[in-house]
Amino acid sequence: MDRALPKRFWTTQRLALFGGGALLTGLLVYTLFFADRRSKLNVERDKITVSAVSTGPFEDFIAVTGVVQPLKTIRLDAIEGGYVTQKLVEGGTRVERGQVLLKLENQNLKLSFLQSETEANRLVNDLQNTRQRLRVERYTLRRTLADLDAQIEQAKDSYDRQAKLIKDKVVSEEDYLRAKRAYERLVEQRKIEAESQKYQEENAKLQIQQLEGTLQRTQRNVALWQQTLENLVVKAPVSGQLSSIDVEVGSNINRGQNIGQIDDLNGFKMRVGVDEHYISRVFAGLNGSFEFNGKTYALTISRVYPEVRSGRFEVDMIFPNGAPEGIKRGQSSPIQLELGKAAKATLLPVGGFFSDTGGNWVYVVDKSGQRAVKRAITLGRKNPEYYEVLDGLRPGDQVITSSYENFGENEVLEF
Fold first, then answer.
1. DSSP code for 276
2. Taking a C-beta distance cutoff of 8 angstroms, is the pair 239, 95 a contact?
3. What's the pLDDT at 90?
4. The pLDDT value given to residue 214
5. Given the DSSP bridges, would you call strands 412-414 and 40-42 parallel, antiparallel or unpaired?
6. d(CA 136, CA 395)
7. How far is residue 379's CA from residue 389's CA, in Å, rounded to a whole number?
8. pLDDT of 1 over the 50 cut
9. 115 — phi, psi (to 5°)?
10. In the chain, which end has fewer C-beta atoms inside a 10 angstrom radius, N or C?
């Protein structure tokens, strides 16, 4: 006889149902509280660059490019204008001081010189005539005074006789007064004549002084015009290489126009362009170096040009120990310009990541080596090889330093 079995609560169906529910609940709890919800991106390890953070001396320098220039360049400007009649030297030729380079012609200058010279000759003649007239007047004065002295002597004798005779009442008072007036008139006439001649002589001397002054000024003008005419012959002011001369026969040159330049070959310097970002840190006296023919040569900034053009300013650097032998004008070379002394720092190699993050964060590879996580950092100075790390990284950290252009905003990269 069959008997009824008791009904069990934990049937297979219920066990399966409760097991699935528990699994689903656990998965939900894990997802809510423990799962990594950060955005992820799978990348290929061989297509990225991973660099190690290290500790070492940070050399504060920048890489710039310098162009070799003569230590001194002399501008060749036309002192006077005119048209070119002869061109005796071409650009690129070595010239000596005083060597004739060009000959100019200027008819107006020649005419002015002749007019000034003619005026000087006229003044010379006037001066000679005035001096001759003064000598003649002196002779005339002497002769006139000599005649008056003779007349005065004769009149005095007559006056003295009349004075004696009138005391004896031998002559009339009228004769006495006539002799007296004749004598006094001659004396007064001589005095007037002497004063007149003195005035004439002083006036003549003043005229001579004025003529002499005018003549000196005119002669100086003649000398200046002569020098001006000599300036129509353009000569090399110094010895060196005539790097350029931008005129041809028949061309017209204005006064002050630049017609070329001469390079002093006794020394060279480097003209260097520097990014305007460093303008506050660059000053005269900073050192640098560059390589030429396998050797390293020292450089020192001698002059800073503060004018900024197209985001760059220029400096001149000289060779404190002498320029390399064989260096040529116009050569360009990379230069290592030191901005400060080396100091110990945490170093991160330079890479393309900076253009995408501005140096504010990087991807750091974790210990498993299977993923890289975004981390905020702070960078300081930069040289062509390293960034100075101020915060966020430790020596030994592995950092992706290649470009982040294709990583988007993902926080985790999985390899």
1. G
2. yes
3. 83
4. 75
5. parallel
6. 112
7. 5
8. no
9. -65, -40
10. N
Return the residue matching tokens 């001081």: 97
Condensed to tens digits (0 to 9), the pLDDT of residues 45-78 reads 888 999 999 999 888 888 899 999 888 888 888 8
Q: Residues 6 or more apart from 171 whose CB is under 8 A from it?
A: 162, 165
> 67: which 2 tokens?
């162009």
Burial of 290 (0-12, 13-18, 19+ CB in 10 A): buried
pLDDT tens-digit map of 151-167 = 888 888 887 887 888 77
Give me the amino acid identity at 183: Y
233 beta partners: 103
Q: Summarize pLDDT for 252-276 with one digit per residue, the tens.
A: 888 888 888 888 777 889 999 999 9
Q: Which domains does the chain have, with CATH numbers?
A: 40-58+343-414 (2.40.420.20), 62-67+264-338 (2.40.30.170), 108-228 (1.10.287.1700)
310-338 pLDDT tens trace: 999 999 999 998 888 888 888 899 999 98
Average pLDDT over residues 348-372: 91
Amino acid code (one letter) for 33: F
Q: How many CB atoms sit inside 10 A of residue 38's CB?
A: 10
Asked if residue 73 lies in contact with residue 259, where contact means CB atoms within 8 angstroms, the answer is no
Residue 97 has pLDDT above 80, yes or no: yes
Contact 311, 48 (CB under 8 A): no
CA–CA distance, 71 with 94 (Å, rounded to integer): 16
Q: Are 257 and 81 in contact (CB under 8 A)?
A: yes
Residue type, 411: E
Q: Please state the φ and ψ torsions of residue 114, each to the nearest 5 degrees.
A: -65, -40
- Surface-to-core class of residue 145, CB atoms within 10 Å of its CB (0-12 exposed, 13-18 middle, 19+ buried): middle
Query: Is the model more confident about 242 or about 19?
Result: 242
% of the chain beyond a pLDDT of 70: 91
Under a CB-based contact definition with an 8 Å cutoff, are residues 70 and 264 in contact?
yes
Closest CA to 283 of 307, 309, 303: 303
Q: What are phi and psi of 272, to 5 degrees?
A: -120, 135
Which amino acid, one-letter code, is at 200? Answer: Q
**In the block, which residue shows the tokens 């950290």?**
397
